[in-house]
Write a structure and sequence with these properties.
InterPro entries: AAA+_ATPase, ABC_SmlMolc_Importer, ABC_transporter-like_ATP-bd, ABC_transporter-like_CS, Mo/tungstate-bd_C_term_dom, NA-bd_OB-fold, P-loop_NTPase, PotA-like. The chain is of the alpha+beta class. The protein is built from eight helices and 20 strands. The protein has two domains: 222 residues, Rossmann fold (3-Layer(aba) Sandwich), CATH 3.40.50; 121 residues, RNA polymerase II/Efflux pump adaptor protein, barrel-sandwich hybrid domain (OB fold (Dihydrolipoamide Acetyltransferase, E2P), Beta Barrel). Strand 1 and strand 2 form a beta hairpin. The protein binds adenosine-5'-triphosphate.
């Protein structure tokens, strides 16, 4: 990745009649990064991608690619290529001809086309399958052909619209790593749209999360997970327990809060949240909670509760714990090292938490 911005979106907006699908989108993407736009269905992420591709013109604002203003420049003249969810490969053409299609339209010499097609198919591990019919391929192979067809054009930026969503879970996970490796090897900027948080986190250098047409947070995956900037993002990414808390003291980087079940805690102020007030919300990830029969020692906050449900997920065990004075059961998850479920519904147990794992969520700025 370089320091250079390959894509710059400045105040980009898209209206369809009275409806605003994308509002005031400002974003700089670095050359060579894998960037994902993540958000729930209808949040405007595909529209944003289509404006970069040139399939849709912004109603306001500017799109720059490699420093050049893209206004009025059609999709096929932009240094971008797009890979679609539905593969969009031609069923009547064989693999080689599918990949060669864009190059032929540009009038490139046959010898160069042959060489570039061979190279592109090797990149996606389909070397030697030129002659295979497009209908004689598995879903994963078809998606690789679609990738090769885009890469053969040597775009500066590859745009990917939910590229793996038609694949089954196992294949999708395999392709996530393959695409990430390919992107790193080629050094091309990838911009992917997805509603799958795990996919975005596995593949991306940075993620931009959108809600209701607005870009709400842009961060690297670990920061997004550890310091979501509001409740919507905290609940969209991973699982989170939400608890009310009252700020009794504020000092520089820290807050002293009283909580309904874990008592008084000194927590870190979250620099990403919109500023707060006295009554805030805090978040605790289920895996950050200790769960034990005896009162856990050396924890900043502890509370007694009763196991309500146990869900065995294989790699971990998920408990819902009812605590007096807290409306919703608290979720705690434990890695399944020893293949045992230690606690059963109805068992009295203790929960423990460290202050450092508590996330200040400030006030909710967006409707849930
Ligand atoms: N051509 C169009 N005309 C009118 N409304 C549109 C058009 N394209 C998109 N929209 C609307 O704009 C909003 C954002 O759509 P968009 O496809 O960008 O969302 P998305 O986040 O990609 O959702 P999904 O994951 O379901 O594709 C939606 O409410 C959609 O109905």
């Amino acid at each position: 990745m370089t320091e250079k911005n390959i894509i710059q979106l400045q105040g980009v907006e898209k209206r369809f009649g009275n409806f605003t699908a994308v509002s005031d989108l400002n974003l700089d993407l670095r050359e060579g990064e894998f960037f994902s736009l993540l958000g729930p269905s209808g949040c405007g992420k595909t529209t944003a991608l289509r404006m970069i591709a040139g399939f849709q013109e912004p109603s306001a604002g500017k799109v720059f690619i490699d420093g050049e203003d893209m206004e009025g420049i059609p999709a096929n003249s932009r240094p971008t290529n797009m890979v679609f969810q539905s593969y969009a490969i031609f069923p009547h053409l064989n693999v080689g001809n599918n990949v060669a299609y864009g190059l032929r339209n540009r009038g490139i010499a046959k010898s160069e086309i042959d060489q570039r097609v061979t190279e592109a198919l090797e990149m996606v591990e389909l070397g030697g399958l030129q002659e295979r019919g497009a209908t004689e391929l598995s879903g994963g192979q078809r998606q690789r052909v679609a990738l090769a067809r885009a890469l053969v054009m040597r775009p500066k930026v590859l745009l990917l619209d939910e590229p793996l969503s038609a694949l089954d879970k196992k294949l999708r996970e395999q392709m996530q790593f393959e695409m990430r490796h390919l992107q790193q090897e080629l050094g091309i900027t990838f911009v992917m749209v997805t509603h799958d948080q795990y996919e975005a986190m596995t593949m991306s250098d940075r993620i931009g999360v959108m809600f209701d047409g607005r870009l709400v947070q842009v961060d690297e995956p670990p920061t997004l997970y550890a310091k979501p900037c509001n409740r919507n993002i905290a609940s969209f990414i991973g699982e989170m327990n939400f608890l009310p808390a009252h700020v009794t003291e504020e000092n520089g980087k820290g807050l002293t809060v009283t909580t309904p079940c874990f008592g008084i805690l000194d927590i870190e102020k979250n620099p990403n949240v919109a500023q707060t007030g006295r009554d805030i919300e805090i978040g605790i990830r289920p895996e950050q909670l200790e769960i034990s029969r005896e009162k856990p020692e050396d924890y900043d906050g502890t509370v007694q509760g009763k196991v309500r449900d146990v869900a065995f997920y294989g790699e971990n065990v998920h408990y819902h714990v009812q605590v007096d004075g807290v409306e919703k059961p608290i979720a705690a998850s434990v890695p399944n090292y020893f293949h045992t479920v230690d606690h059963r519904p109805g068992d009295p147990i203790w929960l423990g938490v460290q202050s450092t794992s508590i996330i200040d969520l400030g006030q909710n700025t967006i409707k849930s």
